[in-house]
Design brief:
Layout (H helix, E strand, L loop, with lengths): L13 H11 L2 E5 L6 H8 L2 E4 L3 H9 L3 H4 L4 E4 L6 H11 L7 E5 L15 E5 L15 E2 H6 L17 H7 L3 H4 L3 H22 L7 H13 L7 H8 L9 H13 L30 H8 L3 H6 L5 H6 L2 H20 L3 E6 L6 E8 L2 E7 L11 H10 L3 E8 L5 E2 L6 E4 L3 E2 L1
Parallel strand pairs: 1-4, 1-5, 2-3, 3-4, 6-13, 9-10, 10-12
Antiparallel strand pairs: 7-8, 8-9, 11-12
Helix pairs in contact: 7-13, 7-16, 9-10, 9-13, 10-11, 10-13, 13-16
Length: 430
Amino acid sequence: MSHVHKEGYTPRLIDSYLQMFLDGLPALALEGPKAVGKTVSASQIASTILPVDEKRIRQSLQASPEIINTSKPPVLIDEWQYFPDIWNYVRRSVDAKAPAGSFILTGSAYPAGAKIHSGAGRIVRTRMRPLSLQERHLACPVVQIKDCLSGKASEQTEFSAKACEVDYIAEITSSGFPGIRAFPKAAQVEQINSYLKNIAAVDFPDAGYNLRRPDSLLRWMTAYAAATGTTANYSEILDAATAGESEKPSKATSIAYRDMLQNLWILDDVAAWIPGEGDFSRLKQAPKHFLADPALAAALLGYDAEALRFGAEESRYDQRYGAIAGRLFEALVALSLKTYAQVNQAHLRHFRTRNGDREVDFIIEKGRSIVAIEVKLAPTVSTKDIRHLLWLREKYGPRCKELIVVTTGPYAYRRKEDGVLVVPAALLGA
């Protein structure tokens, strides 16, 4: 099945990935936070669009769900969580041998308490994220993750003779949500703040969660934002969120916040890499914490571009976890790497031993091949910056296809002394 994008649409990296699945599978669920572009992208593929958040469409489906089988495929069932039973109806249609490319379900929340089948074996679920750096068209990437995973990047000796000047701090605060980026800077700030307030005021209630203290949730999210790029446990996050309070939310409440924010696709942690060979009891297996978009973390912490660029008084959260600007830049790179890994059918992980003596920011793994990546908010790289990358290559040999340091510098190049790739964030692509 081929498809021509509709006029005015800016293609996303996930488009060909979705098309690949629809060419062979009957049903696909495209999930992700609100305003990420799920409906717009899915609409490029769909022949029929059923917006379930519209009352008349919802009532029609409730009265006659077989509409999905009599409409021209692919049928986009948008915001399906407003009528959770439609998920089960799609599953039964798949069991009844619906052909490839029949259904696309999009949703911004997984409905709490809904009695629906997981969809395993019938509906393939995939996540859509805010815009990666490649999708922001800041520069033309010269180093591709697909080439790194296959070892082909090692065949290149020259990468870019053109300077890549990008204001990465501005990119952190401008957001990767397509609609928010379209506003002037002052309006972007208001849009991001409104987005955060609506999570507590609108999204939690819509998903079936009765939130008694919205301010408590926002404090928890602020503490989580302060832990960006760390493996802090949830007890530490709760303690940071409720410092000085005599009546703290229970651990169960904190877990409920986390679970619901995951259901809303607001949290986007990176799991630990477990090599699967030898004795790895010393590895720290906690996930690395990230919000769906680093702009949300910056807003929660009260940092605008100027504060990040020139420095601001450190809060207790910054003192605990380290400089916030570097970790938000890491979050910006992580957002991009998640999409790059996804469209290459690979996985993004992080690596850290329990005592922290060995640590690699990110590892992209596909089969037995790995690409190890360090992130540095600086234009230059020293031997000290790559010592853990070199250790990893020595330990895993042929599995380690490429070592990369992602920087803010102007040029992509390979270090002659050790072969490590140094790549500005905007010059790294899928």
